[in-house]
Amino acid sequence: MRRLLAATLAAAALTISLVTLAAPAPARAQVSDLALAQRWAPVHYQDTDSTDYDADYLSAVDYDGEWDTLNNWEHEPSYPLLGTVSYSVVETSTHWFIVYGFYHPRDWCDSIFCGEHENDMEGVLLTIRRDGSTYGRFEAMVTVAHSDFYSFVPPGSAFVSGRESVDGSVIMQTANGYARPTTRQEAKGHGVKAWDGKEFPGGDGVVYYPSGTAEIPSGGNDRSVGYRLVGVFDAGGLWARRYDAQTFASWGTFRGDNGSDNAANAPWGWDDGNDGSDLQRGLLATDPAKLVTAYFNGEGTFGLAYTRNGYR
Question: Which residue ranges of the chain lie beneath pLDDT 70?
């Protein structure tokens, strides 16, 4: 009887073990890059100047229906400037890194004491910890303002100053059901920083929301305009054209012949002029993990090897 009972229990245990092996708990589906970028897409405060309001509106690089960037300055007054923001996502075992690029056909001025050029793309890098939730946890932001990068952290982040000083806090704003980072872009030159919560200089500006629909501002003081995201790595998109001489004059630099020639850069051409020779041009997009660990301390567990990186 004891032998029979033991055999029965062993058989039952084997059955349970086999059932457990045959039916593992379902794993969480990988969130798409677009969904991730849409979740964290910022509320964007775009300052405008009444001398030429629409020169400060966001648009796609191919806003005129083609990729010849040598005529983007000339076409700007004649084509609708639909709210569009470029994005890319790369990942390590611990983090997602999302780059958003804000494009304008003109970097312009209305004074003899400043320079201008055709095409302009500035942007922002978000560091998102992969904490097991669907969209992760926002930990740090680096913005691009011409040849300088600026560092910001959201409330509750453990990140502190590293090689570069933290320049301020990120104000979070709820839109489309999520708390989102906020960014602010200057008129004319379009340098990007975190929004400081203040009114626009001069009282006029456009507030862009990541609605998924590309809209045109009704004027230079429209406080609710939708923008859509377009992927840098999309088929036929910006990265696919990185060697296209119609779009780029050299690696990461747009063609342009108004004002200073060839003076605007895509994300893989962005560079801070004084953050160290070991942080090469374009690293903010192509190797953001390296840049973030240099700029900040207190980042905790932080993978440096990429599990996915379309720039490589």
Answer: 1-29, 112
pTM for the full predicted model: 0.90
Give the pair of three-digit tokens for residue 194. Answer: 């975190």
Strand ranges inside 43-136, DSSP E:
43-47, 84-92, 95-107, 117-129
Rg (CA), the chain: 23
Structure tokens at 74: 């000339």
Q: Alpha-carbon distance 253 to 70, whole Å?
A: 12
- Residue 46 in tokens: 């775009």
Give me the long-range contacts of 240-245 (CB less than 8 A, separation at least 24): 241/67, 242/266, 242/268, 244/67
The backbone torsions φ and ψ at residue 12, rounded to the nearest 5 degrees and listed phi first, read: -65, -45
Sign of CA dihedral 218, 103, 53, 171: positive
Q: What is the 3-state secondary structure (H, E, C) of 161-218?
A: ECCCCEEEECCEEEECCEEEEEEEECCCCCCEEECCCCCCHHHCEEEEECCCCCCCCC
